[in-house]
Amino acid sequence: MTNIPVRFTVNGRGAEASVEPRTSLADCLRRELKLTGTHLGCEHGVCGACTVVVDGAAVRACLMLAAQADGSDIITVEGLSNGDELSPLQASFRKHHALQCGFCTPGILTTAHALLTEEPDADADRIRDVLSGNICRCTGYIPIIEAVLDARAAYGYVTGEP
Q: Tens digit of pLDDT for each residue in 100-155?
């Protein structure tokens, strides 16, 4: 099979790879670009572990071909922090103990980031609804919801009750 070139902006930097046409975005990020924070779980788009942000939308990277993302702006979990400094969302997860094994955490963080970027005033019900596609087998979801609610101020939420 002939490889095809793909180019993206990943976490603010230009990136390119040569991949087989059937290569998923998740495999490209992990294998070609060495961004291993994007986890592969079910590989059917059900668990949410592979979620990344593509052109502002939370996307299951196991279901999207790398070729489909050509020319896109992609944010992975590695792109949420500023070097060694945690993002406010990541710091909130730490504060609220919203992770245990951590396998699902990258997908939950990128999903929550996409939500709060668009809807910094999202309430607990909206957060639950959006995160319902991310499966966590360790924490229960209460600390995760609390962490996302607490991080809203960093995305512009300033008034109202949680």
A: 899 999 999 999 999 999 999 999 999 999 999 999 988 789 999 999 999 999 99
Architecture of the domain made up of 4-79: Roll (3.10)
Class of domain 88-155: mainly alpha
DSSP state of 8: E
Q: How big, in percent rounded to 5, are the helix, strand and coil portions of the chain? A: 35, 20, 45
Degrees, nearest 5: CA angle 79-82-88: 90
To the question of pTM greater than 0.90 for the whole model, the response is yes
Dihedral (C-alpha) 38, 82, 34, 5: value to the nearest 10 degrees? 90
